[in-house]
Write a structure and sequence with these properties.
Layout lengths: L3 E2 L2 E2 H23 L8 H17 L20 H24 L14
Amino acid sequence: MATTVLGVGTGIFIIVVVWVIALVFGVMLLMRASGPAKLGVVPVLLLALIITLVLVFFPRSPETTPPFKEVEIVDTLFIGRYVLLAGFGGCFSVWTVFLFILPLRQDGGMEGCRM
């Protein structure tokens, strides 16, 4: 299987690089050359076009991927995880209620507590 980046293969990146180099080289030729030397841009663009056509019409891998079996992810610890979560949540809520109720007791409250 071909490697992909952002959902596109390496061929697209090669085409982009070829065209960027061709355009930069073509602009440099057009800016620095004078007279008939400016026609040197035509072979550069034709070369980029030929490379693009070769990469488009002769791909290395088939367009359709072979069918494969979907991997089904099964969480076998689903129930146990939620039992633990409910237990810890219950203990935390009881501890929180106890923590806020303790200072409200009328008989001194905090004397036997070491916090």
